Amino acid sequence: MQFSPPLVEARLIKRYKRFLADVEIAGTYLTVHCPNPGSMLGLAEPGSRCWLAPKTGTKLPYGWELVESKASGAAALVGINTGRANAIVAEGLAKGSFADLPSATVAREVKVGAASRLDFRLADAAGTPCWVEVKSVTLSRNSGIAEFPDARTDRGSRHLAELGLLSQAGQRAVLLFLVQRSDCREVRLAADIDPTYAAAMTQARAQGVEIRAFSCEIGPTGIDAGHEIAFIHS
């Protein structure tokens, strides 16, 4: 996924009210949109280098896309825009980047049950379905290790329950962790942050839900799905 128009480098002053951030661009101070409703633990340190996407037709001139984080040691680029994750996965499916996931047909935001949706309903040439829910991962508190979630997520637990029901009904169900960081080799659960999600994960895996994790190749020009990395469920 290429950034068009190109991103603009800035310096973070502060992030606040979840969806706002103050930045400095070449001596000019601006308020920009922060497209990440999560805690952004370790990713909103004042003074951090960040990159912004120019926006038109909105009150705020830029949207925050990348940040340089040193939270887990060496500097790493992190994609903080959670809304990009599904687009990155969709492009990866089209390129065949996700081993063993069918892509003959790809439906997005498919309704499941009475009041919820899952990100993708895939199918192979024979029409066999495969349900996929994508979770954008940005937290890293230890070098080389990504963690999810970075805050309590009742919605995430509900998605795991829905995937479990689909798996029990004989359909393939996949939870895909997309690690929008350039410095991680594995994904673990942040059970201390959300023990309910950790318990939901244990149940979902027992019901046959597949857990996959993929890295990203990240730069100021774009983000692409990378290679598969380990998911460690302890």
Distance between the termini: 33 Å
Please state the structural category: alpha+beta
H/I helix tally: 3
Shape descriptor: globular
Number of domains: 2
Mean pLDDT: 94
Strand content: 35-45%
Q: In CATH terms, what is the fold-level topology of the largest domain?
A: Trna Endonuclease, Chain: A, domain 1
Strand/helix succession: EEEEEEHEEEEEHEEHEE
The biggest beta sheet reads: 9 strands, mixed
Tell me what the CATH architecture of the largest domain is.
Answer: 3-Layer(aba) Sandwich
Q: Count the strands? A: 15
In spatial order, strands of the major sheet run 7-8-9-12-14-15-13-11-10
List keywords for this structure.
alpha+beta; OB fold (Dihydrolipoamide Acetyltransferase, E2P); Trna Endonuclease, Chain: A, domain 1; about 230 residues; single chain; six-stranded antiparallel beta sheet; 3 helices
